[in-house]
Amino acid sequence: MKKMFFVIVLLVLLLVPTMAHGQVFGDINIHRVFFPQVAFGSDSGGEWFTTILAINTSNQPAQLTIGFTAQDGQNMVAPMIRSNGAPNPTMGHNPGDIPPGGGSWSAILRASEISTTSGAMVAMIPMLGGRDLISVQVTYGRMRNGRVESQATVQPSDPSRMSVVRAVRFNLESDSVGVAVTNPHFESAIVNMEIYDMDDKKVGTARVSVPPHGQIARFITDLVPELKQTWKGGKIIVTSDSEYGVATLGLQTTLETNGEFTFWSTKVSVVN
Prior knowledge:
The chain is mainly beta and 272 residues long. It has two domains: 2-153, no CATH class; 162-270, Hypothetical Protein Tm1070, Chain: A (Sandwich). 7% of the residues lie in helices and 53% in strands. It contains two helices and 20 strands. Strands 1, 2, 3, 4, 5, 6, 7, 8, 9, 10 and 11 form an eleven-stranded antiparallel sheet that branches.
């Protein structure tokens, strides 16, 4: 019966775009965990990829369902490669029972096209006694000349109407700070960003619209160009007009002196 339930959930992910994040199942012991940034494909400088690892931390077999959406909010076909190397392009996937006591399932999103695609992922995780039965880890990375140049953890995020991203820019020429935001609901969300310096003084604001089920990833100095030569970091307060909130991830990048492009994610503090 449990297997059949998750198959039905997967069919909903595939066939009903407005339910691609599974919000209709929120009241029957399913935790929707959002990962606001996944990336794959290539550009002139290297190749982007995303890894997914699911670990069953319970003492019973458990299943999860994952789904992918593009920046415009449409279901996204992700070029999934299973751990055995078999390709499995999919908009949503259920790997079946994951064995208890640390059993795992893993996959990688990797494409050879000379274009870069980014979007978001949601994992629908079963709960028992208020606790997730499966832990999901997501990273996105970049390869150049056959080796991993940089890799970052995508912190899982629950939707919130307010969150705080903290960041530091050590080098104003090479360091960038950004946010990735995914909107898990049926209507567009207006996202406001208030940028503060290290002295907690507001130095800029920005506003973006995120489509239903869509995603954005933007650098603050692209949204507020006048901060590029002055802002050394501080905090970004992200708010949404959506009553359901948005899921947010902090991003930082730097261009090293040897020409390598490195990046990492920053933990977001949710304000209730």
